[in-house]
Amino acid sequence: MPSIPSLLPTPSTLTPSTLSSLLALYAPTLASHASTKRAAEVPSAPDLSALDLLRYTTIPARVRARWHDASAPSNREPKEPEDSEATDPPPDRHGWLEKEELELLVAWKLTRGHSRPTLPALVRSNAPSLVRDTTARAYALFATTVDADKADPFPALKVLAGLRGVGPATASLLLAVGWPGEVPFFADELLGWVRGRRGALRYDWREYGELWEGVRAVRERVGGGVSAEEVERGAWVVGVLGRGGGWNPRGGAGGLRMLIHGKYQQVLTSLLACRSLTHTALSTEKIQRSTDVLSSLSSFSRSFPQVLCA
């Protein structure tokens, strides 16, 4: 029988099919995580599922919609000639964030991760124009490195860190929503997975460099156009299933079995209700949810049969 650590995906063993299985488990793992946090910490915490949709779908789409061609005129006030440099990238070319979006992203970060009660007030103290100008400048800076075929996040990250309440981790989040294919968010679970161990984090630039290189290596090895966001979310699932907020293989199998058994119980409850439709109406939504969970679990079980039988 393989050891427990060998049953769970590592950066060196991750495959496209395993990653797909982890991504299929992201939504149910998020729901379970949110429920646990509400019960243990803050019952009135924001809706994590709604914030997650904003973080991974709505806000990145808004930023992308703000892109425009380099030849298009900027919608900002032009700089005075003496303040301009011919080499500066067009400031609006790759979009920007509004202050409200920054606040929502920080709410997502704190709701999914660790609470920091003073951080939201610091973030709110930034002027809307400063948020827009800073994020636009950072996105344009990162674009120049991507265009040169040598993506380097650090010039852009350090621009973003000029905002109040924005350190390396939050700066990576702001850059990630603008460039989800290229930039991973500085999540505890992701760094722990890349390192293959848990440990106290400093949340500094050196650690983000370690995370950046680790994710880049995984993307190159797995291939198939896998994005930084996909690696990030897959590693988060592994971290949460391991419990403790980081890479914990020995807790992983137990957490995994609990999640899977719990989801199967939900499915069986919904399906058994079909036998008494004259008394209890089974909504289309419940049927679809049960089908989705079964599909996810079936996909996952094909990748990790030993874990299911352990």
What does this structure look like?
This protein is mostly helical and 310 residues long. It is 63% helix and 0% strand. The protein contains 15 helices and no strands. The protein has helices at residues 4-7, 16-24, 26-40, 48-65, 99-112, 119-124, 128-147, 154-160, 168-178, 188-195, 205-222, 228-241, 249-273, 284-303, 305-309. Helix 2 runs antiparallel to helix 14 and helix 8 (154-160) packs across helix 9. It is globular and about 45 Å long. Residues 1-6, 69-87, 244-255, 267-282 and 305-310 have low confidence and may be disordered.
Quick tags:
mainly alpha, 310 residues, 15 helices, globular, disordered N terminus, disordered C terminus, single chain
| Helix-and-strand structural type | mainly alpha
Strand segment count: 0
How widely separated are the two ends? 9 Å
Computed over alpha carbons, the radius of gyration is 21 Å
Helices and strands in order:
Blueprint: H1 4-7, H2 16-24, H3 26-40, H4 48-65, H5 99-112, H6 119-124, H7 128-147, H8 154-160, H9 168-178, H10 188-195, H11 205-222, H12 228-241, H13 249-273, H14 284-303, H15 305-309
Helix pairs in contact: 2-12, 2-14, 3-12, 4-5, 7-8, 8-9, 10-11, 10-12, 12-13, 13-14
Structure described in brief:
By secondary structure, the protein is an all-alpha fold.
